[in-house]
Structure formats: C-alpha cells, structure tokens
Write a structure and sequence with these properties.
single chain, nine-stranded mixed β-sheet, binds 2-acetamido-2-deoxy-beta-D-glucopyranose, elongated, Leucine-rich repeat, LRR (right-handed beta-alpha superhelix), about 425 residues, two-stranded parallel ribbon
Length: about 425
C-alpha cells in the first residue's frame, strides 16, 4: 500500500503531462510556415484558454464568442511563444491593460470584427515586437485628441470600417514606424494633414470612402499626400461626379412647387418689357419660322405635304396610262383582245351559275339534318368500370349540343365527353 500511492500520483502526473500536449478537440493543430498553429474557430469558445499546448505560435480563436480579454490570461496559460494571434470575429468589447502581458514574441494581432469602442493607448506596452495590428470593423466612433496607440515598432495599422467620423490631430503622434495605414470606409468627410505629419515613415495610406467632401481643402490634402510620396488611391475625380448625381436625385425627388414670387424679386418696370419685342422684329423670316414652329409641327407639315404630293402624283399617273371606270381599269383594247375578254366573261358567268345551283344559298349554316349530331348512346351498357354514372351531367352535355341555335358548334371531341362520365 505504501508503494502504490506514489505510483498512482506518478501515473496521474504523467497523464497530465501527456494530456496537456494533446490538441484539444475544438482545435486543429498543424504547421504553417514552420510555426505551430492551433486553429480553434467557430466553437463558441468564451475564453482564450482551451487547452492548446503552450508551444503554440499561431493561435486563432476567430469566430467565437469571447467578449473580454482579462489581464495576464495568456501569461498564466503559458502561451509565451505566440507570434500570430487571431481574435477576429468575436464579441470583444473590453481588453485589460495587461491582457497581452507575456506575449513578447507577438508580431501580428488580429482584433478585427469585434465590439471595441476604446483601447488604452499603452495597451501594447507588453508586446514590443508587434508590427501588424488589425482593428478593422470595430466601433471607434468617438476618438479623443490623444495618441490612439503608443508603439515604437508598429508598422501596419488597419482602422478600416470603424465608423470613425474624424481623425483628431494628435491621433498618430506616437507611431514613429508606421508604414501602412488603412482608414478607408469610415465616415470622415474631411482630413487634416496635421494628423498625418507625425507619420514620417508612412508609405501607403488607404482612403477609400464615399463621404469625402471633394472641395479645394481635400484636394490640397491629396496633393500633400502625393508630395510626401505616400501612395494612395485618388478619391476626388470620381467622387465629385457622385456627389452631383446624388444632388440631382435628391432635387428630383424632393422638388416642391415653388412660387417664384417667394424666391425672386419681380418688380420689373414696364420699360424692360419693350426690349424683347424690339429684338423679335429684327429676326429674318427664316429665324421667325424657326421660332414659331416646333420640330413636331414641322414633321407633321412635312408628312401632310408628302401625302398630298403622293395623291396628286398617283392621280396624274392613272389619268395618263389608264381609262378609269368606276372601279376597274380598262386599257384600250384591240379587236382580238376584246373577243377573248368576251369569251372569258362568258365562261365566268357559266361557272357562277353552276355553283349557285349546286350549293345552297346559306352556305355557312349546315343543313338542318346536320344540326342534330348523332351522338353515341350515353346510357349503359357501356363500360363504367364500376363508377356510378352521373346522368345529369351527361344529359346536360347532350342538351347543350342539341340546342338549335348552337347548331354550328361542333360537338366536343369524344374523349372530352368521356371525362364527364
Ligand atoms: C483571422 O481569421 C480570419 C477568419 O478566419 C481570417 O479571415 C483572417 O485572415 C485571420 N487573420 C490572420 C492574421 O491570419
Ligand atoms: C427688389 O428689386 C428692387 C429694384 O428692382 C429693389 O429696390 C428692392 O430692394 C428689391 N427687393 C429685395 C427684397 O431685394
Ligand atoms: C432697358 C432698361 O430700361 N433696363 C432696366 C431694366 O430694369 C433694371 C432694374 O430692374 C434697370 O437697372 C435697367 O436699366
């Protein structure tokens, strides 16, 4: 018994050690670019500690439900080797001042798509190697006129889509190494170059945004950026067009009846009225014509003229080449032609007589005996396949067909009748 007890303890310790080296079921562990990666995404994880071995170098907790990052959590869990930490798509709204304590090797931190409204400017004091920080799609609506972040190594800062309305002048005064800045898709309408002056190493700035007010001030800002050889995408040629389009659409939608007397000062003296009258008298006849006739009128007049000419021309042509009777045109005929025409006429008459004898005058209506079509006997015996015969429907059908005034209606096809049985 005395021997057994320490043995169990040893086994338990061994198990514990082995257990801590297992990749948790919630995560995928692999190698990426020679680094130990643990990907624990979309698992409803609420805290940063899920049992990932502490040798993890790329740690992704993206798409979870973490809402707070408490102080020293990474340090306590022994995650001292993390270089890339992905906390994007969580619900983080609060980060303790020492939350990232111990992450001395952290280079890339992704905090995008969270609910951050504010971060203390010295939050990254404990992560001296941090070079890339993604804070996009958070809610930094109200930025104070103080350094947003203080970090001597940070090179890339993403503030895309953070609902930022303005950039206070002192915002970037403590980011001496920043090379790339993304402030696109925010709500800023103007930009002060003062905020960019401290970023002496800035190489690239993303400005894409639908709200820039493209006035001379902003054009000055753009030329300042260009003069510092910072690359950026020009905003103000297409933007001006967009603004005018918007304005036009607003005007056309919201236009109301306006009494010019309310907006104009119409106190025109009588003298001024005579001036345009004098001007009209100086017009040449052609100019007058132009003024008085709209193009539509001109078109109609042209059409009418064309029609008239056509009618007169046709009349003249007919008069010249034909002798016109009431309806049919008879050309002057030679004797032979006349005899032949006579023969043709005689033949026509004979055929007409023949036809009128054979065919009854009311050619359209069928003879009376055809008005009562001999319908098949609809009462049994015919195969009913065990279905009771609906006599009313059948009778109705027959009556409808036998009505005298419906004699011309052909009986419905037989297969249709059968459906009614
Ligand atoms: C973090 O995870 C999201 C979602 O999986 C991904 O889009 C993003 O690129 C990741 N960030 C980094 C730095 O790997
Ligand atoms: C309207 O115009 C007249 C001169 O034509 C001027 O005396 C008057 O002050 C103007 N009224 C306003 C309201 O501008
Ligand atoms: C030709 C003429 O009389 N023009 C007058 C029209 O009215 C303005 C004031 O509304 C005068 O300044 C012009 O002299």
């Amino acid at each position: 018994m005395e021997l057994k007890y320490p043995a169990i303890v040893l086994v338990l310790i061994a198990l514990d050690c082995v257990g801590s080296q297992l990749c948790p079921k919630k995560c995928d562990c692999d190698m990426y670019n020679g680094l130990n990666r643990a990907t624990c995404e979309d698992q409803n994880i609420i805290g940063v500690e899920v049992g990932v071995p502490n040798g993890v170098q790329i740690y992704s907790l993206s798409h979870n439900v973490i809402s707070e990052l408490e102080n020293f959590r990474f340090k306590e869990a022994g995650y001292l080797s993390i270089q890339v930490l992905n906390l994007s798509y969580n619900l983080i709204f609060w980060i303790g001042l020492h939350a990232f304590s111990g992450l001395e090797k952290l280079v890339h931190l992704d905090l995008s798509n969270n609910r951050l409204r504010y971060i203390p400017s010295d939050l990254f004091w404990d992560t001296p190697r941090l070079t890339t920080l993604d804070l996009s799609s958070n809610i930094f609506e109200a930025l104070k006129n103080e350094p947003f972040i203080m970090h001597s190594e940070l090179q890339v800062l993403n503030l895309n889509n953070c609902r930022i309305k303005s950039l206070p002048d002192r915002l970037f005064t403590r980011l001496p190494n920043l090379k790339k800045l993304d402030i696109s898709e925010n709500y800023m309408i103007t930009l002060n170059t003062k905020v960019l002056v401290p970023l002496r190493k800035l190489e690239r700035i993303e400005l894409r945004n639908d709200y820039w007010k493209c006035d001379s001030d902003f054009i000055d800002v753009e030329s300042w950026i260009a003069s510092k050889s910072i690359s950026y995408q020009k905003q103000c040629n297409k933007k001006a067009l967009k603004m005018s389009e918007k304005m036009i659409s607003i005007v056309s939608v919201e236009k109301e009846d306006v009494d010019v007397n309310d907006v104009w000062n119409i106190t025109t003296p009588a003298k001024n009225i005579t001036v345009p009258v004098i001007e009209t008298t100086t017009l040449t006849p052609f100019e007058k014509f132009d003024k008085e006739f709209s193009s539509m009128q001109a078109f109609i007049i042209g059409l009418e003229l064309g029609l008239a000419i056509g009618v007169v021309g046709t009349y003249i042509w007919l008069r010249k080449f034909c002798h016109c009777g009431q309806l049919n045109c008879i050309r002057p005929q030679t004797g032979r032609q006349r005899r032949r025409a006579q023969r043709v006429r005689d033949n026509d008459m004979r055929t007409n007589l023949l036809w009128s004898n054979v065919i009854s005058p009311d050619l359209d209506t069928p003879p009376s005996y055809r008005r009562h079509p001999s319908l098949p006997d609809r009462s049994p015996p015919f195969p009913t396949y065990g279905v009771p015969v609906v006599r009313e429907a059948a009778a109705l059908q027959v009556d409808a067909i036998r009505l005298p005034d419906r004699g011309e209606t052909p009986p419905p096809p037989y297969h249709e009748c059968r459906i009614n049985i």
